[in-house]
């Protein structure tokens, strides 16, 4: 769970895995399930765990993990199918509810403001991240405004890993920072 790379295409997924991402999350917003499945199948040989964003049907067809936001449907189906289930959270309470719902890991944030998601909620900061980490027994992956300069701070706050979108280009440096903090 050390470094999640959120990607929108096959080429970026391959660069992310080559750069040290341990999890590649396909984030194909608005794409039909058939397109997500096609990209997922093309990545069958990827040297990283594959997770699909928001599309339980695609995840089930590919037999990979799925990551859901607060209020997204499908957690029960994912849990029943036995596939990895990530759920986005911002608070200790949301973390406890997500863990009870069967989440195998949590994505907590945004830790800091991020240009990748201008409509994101207010940042939770390192204290908010620490609070979520201390309230659950499943791994927590920090997301939001993370790069090589601050990834280690997230690990020291209790996160098992970090997730990035814009920092995919600097994955080797980011992975080194995370590994050193662990």
**Spans with pLDDT under 50 lasting ≥5 residues?**
none
Question: What is the CATH first-level class name?
Answer: Alpha Beta
Counted by DSSP, the helix tally is 8
**From N to C, what is the helix and strand string?**
EHEHEHEHEHEHEHEH
Mean of all residue-level pLDDT scores: 94
Largest beta sheet: strand ordering: 1-2-3-4-5-6-7-8
| Shape field | globular
**What structural class do you assign from the helix and strand content?**
alpha/beta
CATH architecture: Alpha-Beta Barrel
Q: Number of folding domains?
A: 1
The CATH superfamily name is Aldolase class I
* CATH fold label: TIM Barrel
Distance between the termini: 12 Å
Main β-sheet, in a few words?
8 strands, parallel, barrel
| Quaternary class | single chain
Using only CA atoms, what is the Rg?
15 Å
**How many E-type strands?**
8
The percent range for helix content is 25-40%
Strand content: 15-25%
Describe, in short, the structure shown.
The protein has helices at residues 10-18, 33-42, 56-62, 75-81, 92-100, 125-135, 151-156, 171-181; strands at residues 3-7, 23-26, 49-53, 65-68, 85-89, 105-108, 140-143, 161-164.
